[in-house]
Design goal:
Blueprint (H helix, E strand, L loop, with lengths): L1 H4 L5 H24 L4 H24 L1 H13 L4 H28 L1 H8 L6 H26 L3 H30 L3 H26 L11 H40 L1 H42 L3 H28 L1 H9 L5 H26 L4 H21 L11 H27 L5 H26 L5 H22 L5 H5 L2 H30 L1
Helix pairs in contact: 2-8, 2-11, 3-5, 3-7, 3-9, 3-10, 3-11, 4-5, 4-7, 4-10, 4-11, 5-7, 6-7, 7-8, 7-9, 8-9, 10-11, 10-15, 11-12, 11-14, 12-14, 12-17, 14-16, 15-16, 17-18
Length: 541
């Protein structure tokens, strides 16, 4: 068991980090959404610029942490520190150049992007404000991959936490200053909110740089190292690019196709609801799966290199089960309580139907994420790319046709964009999952992996409804929702144990649970020893 416990090293740190990241992220998102002079129109400007930044960021860096982590993990157990240093130095040089190019492209073509791609000319200044962040994040990505590969995931987790906390603080402080100085100019407020991202990424890079004590300055820069890095990072980056492109399809198509039927101003508001509320809320559960997937690639790469097939199968099956247990109740809860969640956070239920559709998407996106990480770890790096490419093509076709339909239709307008996203991820996750099952030769029991989690989620939903309707007549409705959610979470965890979804081996892989098991075993051992000594003492008398 000790051998297997290391696969979850860092998972808890990353999940805690993601909790903090999402809480603070929600704080500044709620602040912006409810800020006078900003609202849904400001969100449209802010998020459209941010999505283009995210696309260029993906091209230049998003595949980098996983690629570098995979290479470092393969060298870590051989103890070849010089080779690790070569990988780090080569990666920093390569992605510094790419980062500079990405920042320049975003800054130089900001006017063209805002006018011709986004159809939101006000986004120009937001794009310019974000442009230096691409260079910062390229270097951040290299260092995070480096630390993940060395199994120092805590450093990655801390850097993410620092970045998000500072981003929230900078956003609120800078927007308040601009609000006062410009008399609530929405365009400048959106630009300065995005500039907060640039400042936060700079601080995160400084933290990661100062944490590194590996001597790599004297190591020679070799073409062989460059080729090895690019060979791994390019296909992984392609998958990340397609995932980012998938999100950008909405930023390019929603306003473009909606403005003809409802006017440009209302179209921007509808896109602001989709990007500033629905996408933010639906991304919360997925972020935890991304945190878990981050730890998979170096682990799976190491097991694959050691040809430890049995252990690799167990790791893959355990991660898949944990993913289902995490996201299924989230999807069910968000679907059922979409109105209440939106009222709780935004004081209105605009976009409720969009959130319901996105709640279903969460399940398939999460399975897709974990499956892609496993495939990349075993070297099947092009499978995620191909499956996502097929999904993105379907998304584009559906967006073009569904968004044009009247919003009164369930599948029209922004609801059409959400349905297109759902279909995209159903197809992509299904392709990748089937190939992963075949390559690893593993069997997924429907009763354990689907039916039992579904029953547990049903029990949770029943508790959520009954607690909410019981409490809302007694206390303030928003507090009733929060308390009902807490009761539902407790009952869901209890249901997992009652239904025996996790066996003893799987429970021991969860750090907190494994500590409790060891503690209870220790207490039981002490109790038995005391009883044994008492009996012996009595017998001696």
């Amino acid at each position: 068991m000790k051998k297997r416990n290391y696969i979850f090293n860092g998972v808890v740190a990353l999940i805690i980090s993601q909790c903090i990241v999402k809480i603070f992220g929600l704080v500044y998102k709620l602040y912006l959404a409810n800020k006078q002079g900003f609202g849904d129109s400001g969100n449209a400007i802010y998020n459209s610029g941010y999505q283009i930044y995210a696309l260029l960021l993906t091209i230049s860096s998003i595949g980098v942490p996983n690629a570098v982590a995979k290479l470092i993990a393969e060298k870590r157990f051989s103890g070849d520190e010089k080779e690790i240093a070569k990988i780090l130095k080569s990666s920093l040089i390569i992605f510094s150049i790419i980062g500079i190019a990405g920042s320049l492209i975003l800054a130089i073509f900001a006017d063209f992007i805002s006018n011709n791609l986004l159809n939101i000319k006000e986004a120009k200044y937001s794009i310019i404000a974000l442009s230096p962040a691409i260079f910062n994040v390229c270097l951040i990505s290299v260092y995070r991959g480096f630390y993940n590969g060395l199994n120092k995931v805590n450093i990655t987790a801390k850097s993410q936490t620092i970045e998000q906390i500072l981003k929230t603080v900078f956003t609120i402080v800078l927007v308040e200053i601009v609000f006062i100085l410009t008399n609530a100019n929405t365009v400048i407020m959106a630009a300065i909110a995005n500039f907060a991202t640039t400042l936060a990424t700079l601080c995160s890079f400084i933290y990661l740089y100062r944490k590194n004590n590996l001597k790599y300055i004297s190591v020679r820069f070799e073409r062989k190292s460059v080729k090895r890095i690019l060979k791994v990072s390019i296909p992984i980056s392609l998958s990340a690019i397609l995932a980012s492109l998938n999100r950008n399809i909405d930023s390019i198509t929603v306003v473009r196709f909606l403005k003809n039927s409802i006017g440009e101003h209302e179209a921007k508001i509808q896109y602001g609801i989709l990007s500033g509320k629905i996408d933010v809320l639906s991304s919360v559960p997925v972020s935890f799966i991304i945190a878990i997937a981050t730890t998979i690639i170096p682990t799976v790469a190491l097991l694959n290199a050691q040809n430890d097939k049995e252990h690799l199968k167990k790791v893959a099956k355990t991660y898949i089960l944990f993913t289902i247990l995490l996201v299924l109740p989230c999807g069910v809860g968000i679907f059922a309580f979409s109105d209440q969640i939106l009222y709780l956070l935004f004081n209105n239920n605009n976009g409720s139907i969009l959130l319901k559709i996105s709640a279903v998407s969460i399940i398939f996106i999460s399975i897709e994420q974990i499956t892609h990480a496993i495939l990349q770890g075993i070297g099947k790096v092009f499978v995620p790319t191909v499956s996502l490419l097929i999904g993105v093509i379907i998304k584009i076709i559906l967006n073009i046709n569904l968004i044009k339909l009247p919003q009164t239709y369930f599948i029209g307008g922004t609801a059409g964009a959400c349905i297109a996203t759902l279909v995209c991820h159903i197809v992509a996750s299904n392709i990748s999952f089937r190939i992963m099952i075949k390559k690893l030769n593993i069997k997924i029991k429907i009763f354990k992996y689907v039916l039992k989690p579904a029953i547990a989620s049903g029990i949770m939903l029943l508790c959520l409804y009954s607690s909410y309707f019981l409490l809302k007549g007694i206390i303030i409705e928003n507090i009733a929702i929060i308390l009902a959610i807490l009761v539902a979470i407790f009952m869901y965890i209890a249901s997992i144990f009652i239904l025996k979804i996790l066996n003893e081996e799987e429970l021991n892989l969860i750090p907190f649970i494994s500590n409790l098991i060891k503690f209870s075993e220790k207490i039981n051992f002490i109790r038995k020893n005391k009883e044994k000594r008492r009996i012996l003492h009595k017998f001696g008398e």
